[in-house]
Structure formats: C-alpha cells, structure tokens
Design brief:
17 helices; alpha/beta; Rossmann fold; globular
C-alpha cells in the first residue's frame, strides 16, 4: 500500500475554502494535485470528475456546460478544467447564485488558460494556488510550512529534525520531485521509464493543446537546450542559435514551458535609480530529475561529475525556496537575483518588506567569507535594509560565516 506524504499546501486549501467558492490548483502535470485535493477533502465526501477521463465527459463539458454541472454537483473536484474554458462562466453563475464557499476545486496544468478563465469569469471568486512536486521538507516529514527566510526564527523551527547526508541530498536532486519517482524508490530503470513517459505525455497533451507544433523533435531539442541552461541568465539569441531557430519562436516556446509549469524565470532585482543593474531574468527548470534525464545523467554520480553540477544544485535550492512560498499560498514569491554591469552577483534575494535577505548557493562543504563579498553591494540600494544572509551549501552544520551571514546546510531550507 502506498504511503501518502502529507502536502503542505493542504493547509492553504483548508484556509481558502472558508472564504472562496472556487479553489484553483495549477502546476505541472503529475505533481499530485488531484491526490492532494482528494486527501485534503476526503472527510467531505467530495465528488470528482476529470475532463481527461473519457471523450464522452469531455464532449459533455464542451457542448453542454450547464448540463455537465447539473450532473456533476458540488462540492466537486474537476480535473484539467482548462480543456473546457466555457465551464468558467457557468461556474461563475452557480457560485453567484448559491453564495456557498468551497464548492468547486479546479485543477489544470496550463496556467495561461486557467488565468485567462479566472480573469474573464472568476475574478474575486477564486483562490489560486500554485503547486509543484515534493519539497525537501515534505520528504523529511517536517510540519513547519512558513516561507524560507534566513532568520533565527526559521532555523529554530526547522533545526530539530535529523539532518540528511550529502549522498541523500544528491540522490534526491537526481531523482527529482515528482511523487511517482519517490514511490519507485531507488530503481533507476523506473526513474528513466517515468521521465521518458512524462516527456511524451507532456508533449502530446500539454504542448499540443497550447500550440500547433509540427516538428516535435525540434521541440524536444529545445527543451534539452533550456535544461542545459538552467541557473543561467536567459539569452534568447544564444538559445535560438543553439536550437537553430529564430528568436521569436524561441520566445514563444519558452513561454509554453513557463505556462505549463516546467520552468521559472527569476527576475533581476531592479531599481530605477541604478542603471548599473542588469534586466535579464535567469531561467530555472522546476524539476532537477527532469534536467538529469534530459541531460543523460542516469545516476547521481554522473550528475556530480558533470560540468553543470553547480548550476543544478543552485536550481534545486532556488526551486525549494520557491516551493516554500507556493506551499504557503504565495503565488508571486518575492524572489530576485542581483547582478550589475561590473558582474557583482548575488544568487538570490528574498525581499521581506523593505528588507533584502541575500543568499549565495554553492556546492562546497567548506565555505569561505569571500563567497559572500557581493552581499556588500546591496547596501548601495536606496531605501532598503540588508537583513540576515545565508550561504546555502553542502556543509553539515548551521554556523556563522560572518556577523550577518550563516552557513546553512541545504536540508535546512
């Protein structure tokens, strides 16, 4: 029997359903959206239907949305809601008429169509939740759910849990965060089978729903190129050259990856008074296991031996911090990076009000103060305070690196 890993985002569902009639959970395919909703809402005896289930159900939702909602009554989970965009308008009518909270729980793996439906029909009526795969906290069974900020309050709450070895961390980075690969354990054949199937399903069901791409082999080549650039500044011209396509196609295809929840664009910290700051985002794949599969790293050792290990580790850390915000219901996480034209760079800035918390990310287990010297650049930003900082790495212990910066083991995010 499969063991269900409690998802932190369940608390957000429980909180929002008390004030919203509609809850929308969006995120990549197979991150466990439906399973999480069923587990969270099982005490309510909730109904369930998927628009991806059979052609008859799909046709009913498309051709007769009112009759569809008459048959599948609330409270109900409706999977892959973006396939029948007309349902949004009819759901609006139903919830306006009843006024009841927690009636419709909608999921989808295409954020663009979901947000379009919300903007046009469900504005003010729907709670929006962004969901990704397992977080490290969830895997470790940590109940603490607040977003990561490198303060004593956070570390006091999370430091009581047993730490993980470097080998365990590296195995999780290689494996990825999809629930199914964790159910399979350490079997690398199952791991490869999952990602091969995932890639095929993603292209057939998500990509073709969004756009009419004729050359699927070219799109796979594009995905691999983006995976190889995870953790780097986004340069559309370079990406287009690698893939042998024009820049406009590159931009359109990257928006597909972003829309379907496979990549995240980390925006640079900007200040209108400082023209020295770069304005180019960094691109991150949101699952390191998928990067490893696309890159041909079939075991953890190949990952560590590769020239991209530092970028993949950074990708993992940024994604884990992003999950800590999503899992607390924060859809637009206050995360940035800093880089100026003199190439001073801070891997991550966490903004908390008028305070900026700098974060550096390295694979080292023995960090030095020189690694965080760029933190000083943040003091030049007007009207902002520089708060406690962190160097997140493969060190074993939480210890001070400077008066304001802590060395933070990666499993204490």
């Amino acid at each position: 029997m499969k063991t269900y890993i409690n998802r932190h985002i369940s608390k957000v569902i429980e909180r929002q359903q008390k004030r919203m009639s509609v809850i929308i959970v969006t995120g990549p395919r197979r991150v466990g959206k439906t399973t999480m909703l069923k587990e969270t809402l099982k005490s309510r005896g909730i109904n369930y239907v998927s628009l991806d289930q059979t052609p008859i159900i799909y046709q009913s939702a498309i051709e007769n949305p009112s009759g569809f909602l008459d048959r599948y009554k609330p409270p109900i989970i409706i999977d892959e809601i973006q396939k029948a965009p007309k349902l949004f308008e009819y759901i609006k009518g139903r919830v306006d008429e009843s006024g009841e909270r927690g009636q419709y729980y909608l999921t989808g793996s295409q954020n663009f169509r979901l947000m379009q439906g919300i903007t046009e029909s469900l504005a003010g009526r729907a709670g929006i939740i962004q969901m990704l795969g397992f977080s490290l906290r969830e895997i470790k069974g940590i109940k603490y759910t607040l977003p990561f900020i490198p303060t004593n309050t956070h570390f006091d709450a999370i430091s009581q849990v047993k730490t993980m070895s470097s080998d365990e961390i590296i195995d999780i980075i290689h494996r990825g965060s999809f629930p199914q690969v964790h159910e399979a354990g350490t079997d690398l054949s199952d791991w490869a089978d999952f990602y091969a199937n995932y890639l095929q399903t993603y292209i057939e069901k998500d990509v073709r729903d969004i756009t009419n791409i004729q050359d699927l082999s070219a799109f796979i080549k594009f995905i691999k190129a983006v995976a190889a650039l995870s953790g780097e500044q986004l340069n559309y011209s370079t990406l287009a050259e690698i893939c042998g396509m024009d820049v406009n196609t590159t931009k359109r295809w990257l928006s597909i990856l972003e829309t379907s929840g496979l990549v995240y664009l980390l925006q640079p910290y900007s200040n209108n008074l400082n023209k020295r700051l770069v304005k180019t985002p960094k691109v991150y794949f949101l699952d390191t296991g998928l990067i490893c599969y696309l890159s041909g790293w079939h075991n953890p050792q190949q990952l560590m031996d590769g020239a991209r290990w530092g970028h993949i580790f950074e990708t993992f850390v940024v994604t884990e911090i992003l999950k800590s915000y999503y899992n607390n219901g924060v859809v637009f996480a206050p995360l940035f990076y800093y880089r100026d034209k003199e190439r001073n760079e801070v891997d991550l800035i966490i903004q908390d009000g008028d305070t900026l918390h700098p974060v550096e990310i390295k694979t080292t287990s023995d960090p030095t103060k020189a690694l965080v010297k760029s933190f000083e650049q943040l003091k030049k930003i007007p009207d902002k305070k520089v708060g406690a900082g962190a160097l997140i790495c493969l060190a074993k212990h939480l210890i001070p690196l400077t008066e304001t910066v802590l060395t933070v083991p990666v499993d204490m995010i």
